[in-house]
Design a protein that fits this description.
Layout lengths: L19 E3 L8 E3 L11 E6 L4 H4 L6 H11 L1 E6 L2 E3 L12 H7 L10 E7 L20 H32 L3
Parallel strand pairs: 4-6
Antiparallel strand pairs: 1-2, 3-6, 4-5
């Protein structure tokens, strides 16, 4: 995808889903509401695409299953775009900025790993002044605004995973032999 405007997106507004995040690093089952109000971050547009690599599912759509796997491997990760320009190094294999692979180790089959997901996060410079780019132009300074931004994207991913698991279960029930 060369243009983020070509991709479909669903908008969630603050009133739609309160962003509940684990308190104290998630050691207890207590949650707090993530408040983005103190920060100038602006609207965050997120697109996630997750893939099942089960052979029974892949054969429904692809003749070249290995080619598809290679494509997803090359494109996987969650990239960040500001005014349509990519903010490196988010989405690179070496930067699992959302901790997807660690989450996957702790909850295999429920959470998505970096190699199963292609994601795009889009923000506007004019509305995200609290997200300060590092001097080497590779990522944002890890301040409070960045942490809130990362938590908001992680929250959206968790909501996506819930729906994805329902879809995955339905596909497996219909097409994967037991």
């Amino acid at each position: 995808w060369d243009s983020l405007s070509e991709m479909e997106s669903r908008e969630y507004h603050e009133s739609d889903l309160p962003m509940k995040i684990p308190k104290d690093g998630g050691t207890k089952k207590e949650f707090e509401i993530l408040d983005l109000e103190p920060y100038e971050i602006g609207k965050i547009v997120i697109n996630f695409y997750a893939y099942s690599f089960d052979t029974n599912i892949l054969k429904l759509e692809f003749d070249d299953k290995q080619g598809f796997r290679n494509y997803v491997a090359a494109q996987s990760g969650v990239r960040v775009y500001r005014d349509g320009m990519r903010v490196y190094d988010y989405g690179e294999k070496s930067n699992d900025w959302l901790g997807l692979d660690l989450r996957r180790v702790n909850k295999p089959g429920i959470t998505i790993s970096n190699n199963q997901l292609i994601g795009y996060v889009s923000i506007k410079r004019s509305h995200s002044s609290d997200l300060v780019e590092k001097s080497n132009r590779e990522g944002f300074v890890e301040n409070g605004a960045y942490e809130a931004f990362r938590e908001a994207v992680s929250f959206a991913l968790r909501q996506f995973e819930i729906q994805r698991n329902i879809d995955k279960s339905n596909l497996n029930d219909k097409y994967v032999s037991k």
